Request: fold
Amino acid sequence: MAGVGWLMLLLVAAPGQAADVGPDGTHVLRSALVAVGDGPEFPAVPAPVQAVTLPDEWAVSRPGFQGTVWYRVEMDFNPPQGTPRELQALYIARACSNFEVHLNGQLVASGGRMREPVSHQCNRPHLVNLPAALLVAGRNELDIKLVGHRLAEVGSAHRAGGLSTLLTGPLSVLAPYHAWQTALAVGFAQGASATLLLMGGFMFVLGYVNRRESQLAYFGALSVGLAVFDARLWLRDLPVAHRLSEFMLLVLLSFITWAAVQFLLRSRGMRLKQADAGLPMQCALVGLTLLAAGPERLHTLALFWYVVFAAEIGAAAVLLLRHPGSADTRWTTTLLLTGAVLAVLADATASFASDEHVLALLASTGLPLVVVFVGLRLVMQHGRARREAEASRAQLEQSKVLLEQRVREATLEIERNVRQLADHKIEQVAERERKRIAADLHDDLGAKLLTIVHTSESDRISTLAREALEEMRLSVRGLTGRPVRLADAMGDWRAETVSRLAQAGIEGEWQSPDEAPQMLSSRAYVQTTRILREATSNIIKHSGASHCSVSCATADGDFLLVIQDNGDGIAQQDVDSRLDKGHGLASMKNRAKQLQGQCLVESGPGYGTVIRLTLPLDRATTP
Reply:
């Protein structure tokens, strides 16, 4: 590391001496003899020869020259006596566009093709091994044959012909420094190009699929374009001539500008018709102007288009920064502008700096590095936006499920309400109809039966009319639908039952609770009354009993009615037969079943008959 630091100090030292000698045996060569010629060796006298100071930039020293130039420098080699001779090397920081090295008249290194298409070596350092067999003690001649292009035919002054300062010394000292510089100038450029290409392809596909995020597609196109544009930094042997490659680079730069401007505009959702139509036309216009101007004016035209491209990107950036947006967008725009400005300044000043290869490295790799960093930020932002979108979608789905559930519940509730309203409406209609029928029975049939009761001369007919009138009144009460207190109902039943038994000469006994606050629906009252009447009629007509007891009680939510006589009784098979044939016993059981209750008949010959009616009060109280 100490040797590398010393070398860096040597390279940036002021050019005041022909050669600077370092403590580690390195020599910095800052002057050379120059002669123009395309022969196999340094031009012989009387060819014009002049002395120049290295670095020699053709854009400054010979801007209109294009062709081949020979540089001759003298190298002192004085190895210590009695020590092994250490391998020597020549380090060339920059030789543009291609070179050959001759040591004492012998070719020892070549950078590639010396005729069109000339190999491109402007952006990489070179380390040339100097064969020990060709070195002599004392002074040695190093001849460098350089082929380059004039300033007018290149898009950047850094790609015009030129030779940097030269460094000679032990191979063991120069090799690590050359490896480090190669990694920075070539390896880093290759890595940046590969990263930009992969990232750009991914971003382009991502933006193309998600049309709402079209800025990602333009950023992908920008990244791919920069990857192709920077391939010139490490591709040495292009299959096309120099003029065509410079033409393609400038046209490619117009496409990169197109993508950059659209990326900045679309980042804030801005879509300008002028940009959508003008930028593609500008790409075609760049090519047409280059063809019209010819290669002799390429550099001047390139400078004009550089200014136009910079103005367009700057205007888009200013428009974006003035537009209200997020801090991430402003930060991204500022970073891109800073990287672009630094790259342009470094490229503009590289040809005039004493350590031009450092600035050239900054110009070629600074902007790709910034673009890679911005791309990573965009990927992170897109991932965060996707996660937030997925969370919002999940929340929306959950809300949707809850909403659907509530809608279903509301629909069921509405259906229940509609059914209840319909039932209530039907019940109201039925109630009105029952009242109408009850009124008709009471007013018409009741009046006629009452007339028969009072006017008939036959006792039997009067009795039948009176019974029909009572049955009609019971039916009318059932039709009106008015509930009855259980205590009142038991009072009515007691009066009627005991009276009928007494008229038949049967002793009647009635037991019921004093208090019975429960209510009976009209239907339960009517059915229970008919069951009690049927049982009383059977006792009077068929039992031959002299005593009958009736008991009423409430227990565990049920109403209990027990009717027991001391008559002849009925055999069990006769009870079953009467139930099957639909006699009065069957009708009592059916009426009890309609009220969700039951009616049991227990009887035996000589033991009388017991009828047990059980009626749920919660059912009996429902109107």
The longest strand covers residues 67-77. The chain is about 55% helix and 20% strand. The radius of gyration is 59 Å.
